[in-house]
Model the fold of this input.
Amino acid sequence: MQTLLDYLKAGESINDFLDGFPTVTREQVIALLEETEKQIVRIEEALRQYIQRRQQMKVLELFCTIDYEKDYNYKQQRQAI
Done:
C-alpha cells in the first residue's frame, strides 16, 4: 500500500503503478482505495464526535464556575422579555 501511495503522491497514475507491478490488478488497487476512503470517513466521524464531546464537557465545566448574585431576581428578568 505504501508503494501505491508513494506513486500517487509523486503524481504518477494508477496505470503507472500497474505497469511497475504487473501482479497487481486494477480491481485490487480500486478496492484498496475504496477501503481507505471508508476508513477515512470513519475516522472523520470519530473525530467529529470526539470534538463534540469535548465541547460538551467544557460547557458542563462552566456550570460549576459561574457565580450568581444572590440578590438578583432572575425570574423578574425573564418576565421582562
